[in-house]
From TrEMBL:
The keyword rRNA-binding does not apply. GO terms for molecular function: carbon-sulfur lyase activity; metal ion binding. Belongs to the Gfa family. The keyword tRNA processing does not apply. Residues 7-123 form the CENP-V/GFA domain. Keywords: Metal-binding, Zinc. It comes from the Bacteria. This is Aldehyde-activating protein.
Length: 125
């Protein structure tokens, strides 16, 4: 798997394109057990906020929020693909959909760690 220092990511239809600065390759690839992640099934990896740029299609992204309304999940309005989200557990990072990375086969990463999104660390008292 060849992760470039600045890697291109796109939705299925190509209406949304991201440029991701990834000097350390895929950081923290994982699946999450929260209700949203279980249903979408994506492998996510982390990038700092300043390392994600929407190159094309910002107006084609739609936002979905639920529960605490803290995390911001972005999807292409045309094809429905989840591209990235602003993380609740680390507000300094985006999580990106590994399957959107050009030239990357997410199945090559299996097995992938599963994080406990049901018992979210931000909910602990």
């Amino acid at each position: 798997m060849d992760i470039k220092p600045v890697h291109k990511a796109t939705c299925h239809c190509g209406a949304v394109e991201l440029a991701l600065t990834m000097p350390n390759g895929l950081e923290d690839p994982r699946r999450c057990s929260c209700s949203m992640c279980r249903k979408r099934g994506a492998i996510a990896a982390s990038v700092l906020l300043e390392n994600l740029k929407v190159v094309k299609g910002e107006d084609n992204l739609t936002l979905y929020q639920f529960n605490t309304m803290t995390a911001k999940h972005y999807f292409c309005k045309t094809c429905g693909i989840y591209t990235h989200h602003h993380r609740r557990s680390n507000p300094h990072q985006f999580a990106i959909n590994v399957a959107c990375l050009e030239g990357v086969n997410p199945y090559e990463l299996e097995p992938v760690r599963i994080t406990d999104g049901i018992n979210h660390p931000s909910d602990a008292s």
